[in-house]
Design a protein that fits this description.
The chain is of the alpha/beta class and about 900 residues long. The chain contains 26 helices and 29 strands. Helices cover about 45% and strands about 15% of the residues.
Length: about 900
């Protein structure tokens, strides 16, 4: 019988096995009328760099699901792919060409896009290699990229359809503008961070009067664009003044005092400056009062032309200069410290500038309704469900989605403008109209517009493909909770709008992977870990099992390299146990289980296997991956390796050939099932070992997943052997207390008033003799104390362990005398401390009580040691 290599070395077989899976198309799925489909779409990683441990966790979970379902008889499809990540990738490429001494403007659009494609080819390839090294079993024949031709066609289809349905419009609206990235971004791409700032209290004088009102602002530079000051209609302080004219400080422009219910008259002075072009709420007020617009800043963050000496200043410089001028000219009342949330670009961390801009938007109110209903009706489920509140809260407060980006990398808007008439045409192709010329919109779409179509565009939509009919809707999405707004919600409403169905039934949210100190992994902290480096050191299986162990849905977890090392040791334990099994097999033997010939310990391990199979499957069905991994770990390490393999040696090393064959059959059966249960978690080592077991002609990846078999559940024998394990453990612990080596054997005297227990002890005598350093098992009819012995009481049974010949009394006495001296010193120390009035009166009561407890404990131990010394002296 061919055996495994003596040393477990994952590098010897991991790549070889993955190549064989690819070669034999084991990951490939096709529409199959004889099978139920099971589909997952991979959250496409951005082509902005290499994968991190978060990607490794996410993809390990998906791989566990897809391998389990594939083995469970489903036509399991896992679609891989990558995202062009427009704004992030463009920033990386701009940075790269700057280092090359070039610029985006010099290269031009075509030259820049060539650089972007080169970047994508490089990093997209790296990502695929990383995923393959991790062992993911996705269908690489369907590998997708959000800028692929068919996916781009889907994007155009949706844009044109939404435009025709009146859901997409172009307008001047306040957007979140990133002056660094040079583009508008959506609300979901803004991080609101608390910052220490100021409230600047400023006098606004009425025209031709010494009277003034005071407004407070955190952004004094925007006063250049004020078109009104507003008060609440019910504010008695200002009722008579509404309609009067104010003079804007510094620029001497006349603006009206208006009334609007938007104003909170309880806050501050009850007067609010209205800057329609630079604040979303002011934009709405300006619209209601026909104030018009006044843009005071360009898209680089500098004050626009027409504002005197401030023009051309950066917004931060302008703020300081305007405050200085207000102070100098007597307009500044006071500066009050104020902490408030400030919007920052999610990618580059620059402070966002709310600014009016002509952009393309998606109307969200109608699209949000069916997305909410999908969750409320129970069709769409979240794991854990607490994220349902986050989902609903965002949809309930949704705003129109700004989808245009002032970038070159991405899906260019299918929009054309007539040079002669200004007419807007939404079309896939450039319009051909006699006497008219057209130019295409330079902007691209928000990257999430295309990734929102991912679950169905990757299956061929808008074409009605067989794949789409069979594999859609998908079953589960595995993603991080940090992109619920960006991606999950948008996939749901896009799918409902375009296909009338939810894109997936379940959404499983992973937590973040943090370092050993609990910090988020980041480049700035230099605490990021490359999964490939971990795999190089410990193997892919050890990393995968570490990421899953202890993992709970939606909760962050800390990454410790020591745990990877421990899981490599687990793999090594399984390897060595498998070598032991194979070493005892013969090529000419057939291994089949006959229930009639099973020993009690065989029935125990088969029962434990059946229960583990049932519980692990239930865990997987509930997405409890951490619990599932713990079940199989405990079964393999504790029950199979530590106990059953030891049980088996009583027959494997004996002369009874029939009993040997029964034992071997059970070993082969259990090991086969262990490998199947563990395969989704640790695919490489299980596939390698499986190939060595007799009669395994197919690969493990295509084998059937074990199912619970009630015929292999033996309740009585299970309890019987569990009792034996507890008793053997207790006996070993008792001997260990006396430092008695396992090689020194003694008789064991068992006492019990229960006849069933007595019979069980006799039945399992061979195991006690082998595992409890026992020379003879004596079952006593009544309790007769055995002199000079240790006593173990466990499971309705008492066991005497005679000490004669086991203990070196001189050494034991020497050890006890040393212990007596040690505890005598501790008693004196504690007594002295408690006799000290200063300590007792000044120390916290808790500390004093703890010291009293210690003294009592030391005295009890001291007395026990004295009794033991007396016993030995008597012997």
């Amino acid at each position: 019988m061919k055996n495994l290599e003596k040393t477990y070395n994952p590098k010897d077989f991991e790549k070889k096995i993955y190549d064989s899976w690819i070669k034999d198309e084991d990951f490939t799925a096709h529409p199959n009328p004889n099978k139920e489909p099971y589909t997952i779409v991979m959250p496409p990683p951005n082509v902005t760099g290499n994968l991190h441990l978060g990607h490794a966790l996410n993809n390990t979970i998906q791989d566990i699901l897809i391998r389990w379902k594939r083995m469970s008889g489903y036509e399991a499809l896992w679609i891989p792919g990558t995202d062009h990540a427009s704004i992030s990738t463009e920033a990386k490429v701009v940075e790269k060409i700057k280092k090359d001494g070039n610029s985006k403007e010099i290269l031009g659009r075509d030259g820049f896009l060539k650089e972007a494609w080169n970047w994508t080819d490089k990093y997209g390839g790296n990502i695929k290699n990383q995923l393959k090294t991790l062992g993911v079993s996705c269908d690489w024949s369907r590998d997708a990229f959000t800028l692929d031709e068919n996916l781009s066609k889907a994007v155009e289809e949706v844009f044109i359809k939404m435009y025709k349905d009146g859901l997409i419009y172009r307008g001047d609206r306040i957007v979140n503008w990133c002056c660094n990235c040079g583009t508008a971004i959506s609300d979901a791409e803004v991080d609101h961070i608390d910052e220490d700032g100021n409230f600047y209290h400023i006098k606004y004088f009425f025209k031709d009067s010494d009277e003034y009102i005071v407004i407070a602002t955190t952004r004094p530079e925007t006063m250049l664009g004020d078109l009104a000051v507003a008060v609440h209609p019910n504010d008695d302080r200002y009722k008579e003044k509404v309609g009067k004219t104010l003079v804007l400080p510094l620029v001497d422009i006349e603006i009206p005092l208006i009334s609007d219910e938007y104003v909170d008259m309880e806050f501050g002075t009850g007067c609010v400056k209205i800057t329609p072009s630079h604040d979303p709420n002011d934009f709405e007020v300006g619209g209601r009062h026909n104030l018009g617009q006044k843009l005071i800043m360009d898209y680089t963050g500098k004050i626009a032309e027409g504002f005197g000496r401030y023009s051309g200043m950066d917004r931060t410089v302008a703020r300081k200069e305007i405050v200085n001028d207000l102070r100098e000219k007597g307009y500044l009342v006071k500066i009050e410290p104020h902490s408030h949330a400030v919007g920052h670009c999610e990618r580059c961390k620059t402070t966002i500038e709310p600014i009016i801009s002509k952009q393309w938007f998606v109307k969200m109110e109608e699209l949000a309704k069916p997305a909410k209903e999908a969750y409320l009706s129970g069709k769409l489920k979240f794991v854990p469900d607490r994220f349902g509140k986050v989902y609903m809260n965002w949809l309930n407060n949704i705003k129109d989605w700004c989808i245009s980006r002032q970038l070159w990398w991405g899906h260019r808007l299918p929009v054309y403008y007539c040079n002669e008439t200004g007419e807007v045409v939404v079309s896939r192709e450039e319009p051909k109209v006699e006497g008219k010329t057209f130019r295409r919109d330079d902007d691209t779409l928000d990257t999430w517009f295309s990734s929102a179509l991912w679950p169905f565009s990757t299956l061929g939509w808008p074409n009605e493909t067989q794949d789409l009919k069979y594999f859609f809707p998908t079953n589960v999405l595995v993603t991080g909770y940090d992109i619920i707004f960006f991606w999950v919600i948008r996939m749901v409403f896009s799918s409902l709008y375009n296909l009338g169905e939810i894109p997936f039934t379940n959404v499983y949210f992973t937590g973040l992977i943090r370092d050993e100190l609990g910090r988020k992994m980041s480049k700035s902290l230099n605490n990021g870990i490359d999964p490939i480096e971990v795999i190089e050191k410990y193997g892919a299986d050890a990393l995968r099992f570490t990421l899953i162990s202890g993992n709970t849905p939606g909760n962050d977890m800390r990454f410790y390299e020591k745990r990877v090392e421990a899981n490599r040791n687990f793999a090594n334990k399984l390897w060595n146990a498998s070598r032991f099994v194979l070493m005892n097999l013969n090529d000419d033997e057939k291994y089949n289980i006959d229930i009639q010939n099973l020993e009690n310990e065989d029935k125990w391990i088969l029962t434990r296997l059946s229960r583990t199979t049932k519980e692990l499957t239930e865990n997987l069905e509930k997405f409890e991956f951490g619990l599932a991994s713990a079940k199989i770990y405990d079964f393999i390490w504790n029950e199979f390796c530590d106990w059953y393999i030891e049980f088996s040696k009583t027959r494997l090393y004996g002369d009874n050939l029939e009993k040997k064959l029964v034992c071997k059959s059970v070993l082969v059966y259990v090991l086969n099932n262990i490998l199947k249960l563990l395969h989704p978690f640790m695919p490489f080592i299980t596939e390698e070992i499986y190939s060595f077991l007799p009669e395994n002609t197919e690969k493990l990846i295509n084998a059937s997943f074990p199912v619970y078999d009630k015929n292999f559940v033996f309740d009585y024998e299970e309890k019987e052997v569990e009792n034996l394990i507890e008793m053997v453990t207790a006996i070993r612990n008792k001997r260990s207390e006396k430092n008695i080596p396992p090689s020194k054997k003694s008789d064991l005297y068992f006492v019990s008033s229960d006849d069933t227990t007595k019979e069980s002890t006799k039945t399992l005598e061979h195991l006690y003799r082998f595992l409890a350093s026992c020379s003879n098992v004596i079952v006593m009819d009544k309790d007769e104390e055995i002199s000079n012995s240790m006593v173990v009481i466990c499971n309705n049974q008492k066991v005497y362990i005679p000490l004669d010949g086991l203990v070196d009394y001189e050494k034991e006495l020497e050890k006890l005398m040393a212990d007596l001296q040690k505890y005598d010193a501790e008693i004196k120390r504690a007594s002295s401390k408690l006799a000290n009035e200063k300590f007792v009166n000044n120390a916290p009561q808790k500390v004093v009580d703890e010291e009293k407890e210690k003294l009592l404990k030391y005295k009890n131990i001291y007395n026990e040691i004295k009794l033991s010394i007396e016993k030995i002296k008597n012997i």
